[in-house]
Write a structure and sequence with these properties.
- This protein is of the alpha/beta class.
- The protein folds into three domains: 2-71 and 476-526, Urease, subunit C, domain 1 (Roll), CATH 2.30.40.10; 73-299 and 396-469, Metal-dependent hydrolases (TIM Barrel, Alpha-Beta Barrel), CATH 3.20.20.140; 301-395, no CATH class.
- Helices cover 32% and strands 19% of the residues.
- It contains 18 helices and 22 strands.
- The chain has helices spanning 83-86, 91-94, 121-124, 135-145, 157-164, 174-189, 209-221, 237-251, 271-283, 308-311, 315-323, 325-338, 365-372, 376-386, 400-408, 435-448, 455-462, 464-469; strands at 2-11, 20-27, 30-35, 42-47, 67-71, 73-75, 98-103, 150-153, 155-156, 194-198, 225-229, 254-257, 288-292, 298-301, 347-349, 392-395, 412-414, 482-483, 486-490, 510-515, 518-522, 525-526.
- The strands form five sheets. The protein has a six-stranded parallel beta sheet. Strands 4-1-2-3-18 form a five-stranded mixed beta sheet, with no helix packed on it.
- The chain is globular.
Length: 535
């Protein structure tokens, strides 16, 4: 007797192989049979119909559905860490077919912390259902809340350094290094899956390579990864890739180049050399993978444009510098010299915190400057000061051709680079990048329409490839003795709806979702049951 049988399924199993027709039987949280289960009994059944889907058809021509069963999608690069405790139904993610999120990227993780003030500002200002400090305590709270998706927790280097060293621009002392290593060891023993860095952000930008290698070695000893938002994704892209590979090799860990891109038109030509660097490393046996989102604009805090000297000391110190006329003038001069005025038109305001700045959401900095009657650089200073460093921004400047090239590389996984959101509730009030709602259906649509890799390869990039990278050996493939994380999508209808003008829009076409054997979406609607775990 099965707990659940998904009958008459057109299966794309996650290995990259072509589709086949089968029934899938589930007992508890495990797939226990794949094949002809026509004579088997079950407590619950989802019948997808016997007709194989027309995989080549990008549009529905009437009431027919082209339903395809895949392993649940693994979002290889997210920032949902603490948001999963606030909005455990995770609507922006489950309606993309995501069953597992890889959290703790770009050097920022939900744990370990001493107190909530050590979290990034857009996490620290939220209310949570409990308190935690260590990874073990975070796991306990996660299990209590039981979000709808699984989570992999990577350990952020910025989080460790902020906890021990603070925001000082200096090397860690031997005692501080020992404390960070102890926290890293404890975090990995409690279930962490690796170390990540965010080397364009304070305080990680102040760390030596030796510090990073030492911490990454702890990850390597636990069969974890070293992932990096590198020091440069533009002018020094090649040097940054070399550094990332060298650190990972020295640490003996698998390597992940986060959101691989060549930012800025002057740097687009560097993608040839960047891809060659990674291919060459892989050919000599270095385990380098990457992730990428299917958009040509990135997103982060607007104050990422501040130079290192201005970012030193933490939030309160930065805000004090903004009020200091001499420091502000020096910053202004450096920002003016950093790029031509017209280039600020490629930066669009996202989330804001001050009520008066809400009107600027979705406007580029040239337009904001015009509205305020000032230079775009002065608009940046105004927004960052009045929003108290809580201004988000979208940074255009990536090549669409390069994006498709990166997505086609066999070692590149799909990652949204986004935390979860919801059209209602506490996570509905900001202005996110549309990738938070649309990355996976967008990529599926491109595969179905012939704009990128073939559909079985697209599914592999979202399932077995990240499962292997993060040590999830019992997930990512539809086969016996694998965890029952499954998604059904309608090939005729699946698409993203979120855009830069209206980002809080759920994707379409995900008809069923199963997480650890728990049916989370049935016939396109949330069931109210959740089965996620910290894995």
């Amino acid at each position: 007797m099965f707990d659940l049988i998904i009958r008459h399924s057109r299966v794309i199993d996650g290995t990259g192989a072509e589709s086949f027709t089968a029934d899938v039987g589930i007992v508890g949280d495990m797939i226990t049979a794949v094949g002809d289960l026509s004579g088997a009994e079950s407590h619950d059944t989802i019948d997808l119909g016997a007709s194989p889907p027309a995989l080549h058809s990008p549009q529905s021509d009437g009431g027919t559905s082209d339903l395809i069963l895949c392993p649940g999608f693994i979002d290889a690069h997210t920032h949902s860490d603490t948001y999963l405790l606030i909005e455990p139904s995770a609507p922006s993610k489950v309606y993309q077919g995501i069953t597992t999120e890889v959290c703790g990227n770009c050097g920022a993780s939900g744990a370990p912390i001493s107190d909530i003030s050590q979290l990034p500002s857009d996490w620290a200002d939220k209310r949570y259902p409990g308190a935690w400090s260590s990874v073990a305590e975070f796991r306990d709270l996660f299990d209590h809340v039981r979000p709808a998706v699984n989570a992999v927790l990577l350990i952020g280097h910025n989080t460790l350094r902020r906890n021990v060293v603070g925001y000082d621009n200096r090397p860690a002392t031997p005692n501080e290094m020992d404390r960070m290593l102890g926290l890293m060891e404890e975090s990995m023993a409690a279930g962490g899956r690796g170390l990540t860095t965010g080397l364009v952000y304070a305080p990680g930008m102040y760390a030596s390579r030796a510090e990073i290698v030492a911490l990454a070695k702890v990850a390597g000893r636990h069969d974890g990864i070293y992932g990096s938002h590198m020091r440069s994704e533009g002018a020094q892209l090649i040097e940054a890739i070399d550094e990332t590979i060298e650190i990972g090799e020295a640490a003996g860990s698998r390597i992940q180049v986060s959101h691989l891109k060549a930012a800025g038109q002057d740097n687009w030509h560097k993608m040839d050399a960047a891809l060659e660097r990674i291919r060459t490393a892989r050919e000599r046996g270095v385990p380098v993978l990457s992730d990428r989102y299917p958009y040509t604009a990135g997103a982060t805090d607007l104050d990422v444009v501040f130079p290192a000297w201005f970012a030193e000391g933490g939030r309160a110190v930065i805000l004090a510098r903004l009020k200091d006329s001499e420091a502000r003038a020096r910053l202004r001069d450096e920002l003016l010299a950093s790029r031509p005025t017209e280039a600020w038109g490629g930066v669009t305001v996202g989330s804001t915190s001050h009520p008066d700045n809400r009107r600027f959401r979705g406007m580029n900095l040239l337009a904001v400057g015009e509205a305020l009657g000032c230079d775009p650089v002065d608009a940046i200073l105004h927004l960052c000061e009045s929003d108290e460093l809580m201004t988000g921004a979208f940074f255009a400047g990536m090549s669409e051709a390069n994006m498709f090239r990166v997505l086609a590389e066999p070692y590149v996984m799909l990652g949204s680079d986004a935390s979860l959101r919801s059209p209602t509730g506490p996570l509905s009030h900001d202005y996110p990048h549309p990738r938070a709602y649309g990355s996976f259906p967008r990529f599926l649509r491109w595969a179905l329409d012939g704009r990128t890799v073939a559909l079985p390869e697209a599914v592999r990039k979202m399932t077995s490839l990240p499962a292997g990278q993060f040590g999830l050996h019992d997930r990512g493939v539809i086969a016996e003795r694998k965890k029952a994380d499954l998604v059904v999508f309608d090939a005729a209808r699946v698409r993203d709806r979120a855009d830069y003008g209206d980002p809080h829009q759920l994707s379409e076409g995900i008809t069923h979702l199963v997480v650890n054997g728990v049916v989370t979406i049935r016939d396109g609607k949330l069931t109210g049951t959740r089965g996620g775990r910290l894995v």
